[in-house]
Design goal:
Layout (H helix, E strand, L loop, with lengths): L2 H14 L1 E2 L6 H10 L9 H13 L3 E5 L10 E6 H8 L3 H14 L3 E5 L5 H9 L4 E5 L3 H14 L4 E4 L3 H7 L9 E4 L5 H11 L8 E5 L5 H11 L6 E4 L3 E5 L8 E6 L2 H6 L2
Parallel strand pairs: 1-11, 4-5, 4-7, 5-6, 7-8, 9-11
Antiparallel strand pairs: 2-3, 8-10, 9-10
Length: 272
């Protein structure tokens, strides 16, 4: 991540964005208002955040494996401390709460997450609807092992963890008749990877599918990839929330629009 680029873009985003309640679309207004409302909680929030705190304090060292952008296993890259991974690779609490409410609001049944990491965001997706199926994909076996332990400890039986590359999952982990309600792209933060996985998963989407793309201001390249996706004719609405972006394909929107919004400040302050 380019911290200088991200900081510069944050200022730009702040001055050109609108309030979260400025939507003309009743659907988007209701969705963003609901998903940003920190009064809407779940009994397991504290349990999951306790796991996050444990991870951030863990001194356990694991081997990291580098899969690159391809489909084959590469060499062991290095070792890493779990606490460092937890500090740098996990979605922020406010975004995780947003994910939970997004599942709760939309009643998504078929959820796919590319990029499990240590499993915190997966847990929030799972509690959004206990009857949903969450397929989450993590290429690194040691990281996946940590995530699976957390799922087991939280008794989240609706999470199906796939320890494989994204390419392998798309090729082998989805049946032809599978339809994705909610897709969370939180893996390779490059324009090429975003474009690749969007189009690879497109056959499994419908006009009711919602996509959340993480870290759209990770780099200039990633921002370009986000803008390229929002310009596609099938994308009828997009919402730039800075930390992440949302893509919609509903055909009943009156106008095709790309929104840039500021989420409620209280949720961001609590989610640091």
């Amino acid at each position: 991540m380019s911290r200088t680029y991200t900081a510069t873009q944050y200022l730009s985003h702040f001055f050109r964005s609108k309030r979260w309640d400025s939507f003309h679309s009743p659907f988007l207004f209701s969705l963003i208002t609901y998903c940003s409302d920190d009064r809407i909680s779940h009994p397991l929030f504290e349990s999951i955040e306790r796991k996050r705190r444990d991870l951030r304090q863990s001194k356990e060292v694991i081997e990291r494996h580098d899969f690159g952008a391809g489909t084959s296993y590469h060499q062991i890259k290095n070792t890493d401390v779990i606490s460092r991974i937890a500090r740098h690779a996990l979605s922020l609490p406010f975004q995780c709460r947003f994910l939970y409410r997004l599942v709760d609001f939309t009643k998504a049944r078929q959820i796919v997450e590319l990029g499990t990491s240590l499993g915190i965001s997966s847990a929030y997706l799972a509690i959004g609807s206990p009857t949903s199926r969450v397929d989450t994909v993590e290429g690194d076996p040691e990281v996946a092992n940590v995530a699976q332990k957390i799922f087991d400890q939280l008794r989240l039986d609706n999470i199906h963890l796939h320890n494989m590359t994204f390419d392998s999952f798309i090729a082998k982990g989805l049946t032809a008749d599978r339809r994705i309600d909610l897709l969370f792209l939180d893996g390779h933060h490059t324009s090429a990877a975003l474009w690749k996985y969007y189009h690879a998963l497109k056959p499994y989407m419908s006009d009711q599918t919602i996509i959340m793309v993480d870290d759209i201001y990770w780099s200039a390249d990633m921002t370009d990839g986000w803008k390229k996706i929002t310009a596609l004719p099938e994308v009828t609405q997009s919402v730039d929330c800075f930390h992440f972006g949302l893509l919609f394909f509903k055909k009943d929107f009156l106008n095709r629009e790309n929104h840039c919004i500021r989420l409620p400040l209280m949720g961001l302050l609590r989610g640091g």
